[in-house]
Amino acid sequence: MILEHRTAQAMANSETVMASAEIPKPPEQVFAALVTDEVERWWGSADTYRMVGWSADLRVGGRWSVIVRTADGKDLPARGEFLEIEAPRRIVQTRRYDWDHPTLGRRQTTVAYLLEPIVGGTRLTVCHGGFAGLTEAAAEHAEGWARVLSWLQAYVDAGSRVAA
Length: 164
Fold this sequence. Notes:
By secondary structure, this protein is α+β, with helices and mostly antiparallel strands. The chain has helices at 27-35, 39-42, 135-163; strands at 9-12, 16-23, 49-56, 63-70, 75-86, 90-97, 109-118, 121-129.
């Protein structure tokens, strides 16, 4: 069954970003796309940045890391720790850039993914917190999460067309 999904949506207040998208794959497949090296196949675009070198120890207390490779070829490392894992329903992890992000600096934030089964796929909700006092960073990350979830939708859609 093909899921007619809505455009990915995101919003922010002064402390937290919320984003949501409907993905036409079961939660197990969406979960894998978020926490395995599959991230490198869909997270990013040629004109923005790509994720490369994904590494993760997928357990509570396990660490993850990735390189954000910008369109102009800069490598910007990011990393964090898994705080909660309830496969395939929930992931909570910390995130920290190991470089001076223009609006966030090196502040550690927390990202929670909630995967809910729906008819024809999964509703993925992202709650990204830790922006207190950084309203501009929260707004920028809201735009970023809408873009990221759209990339995930496009990746899944392209795979569905190829398999059909």
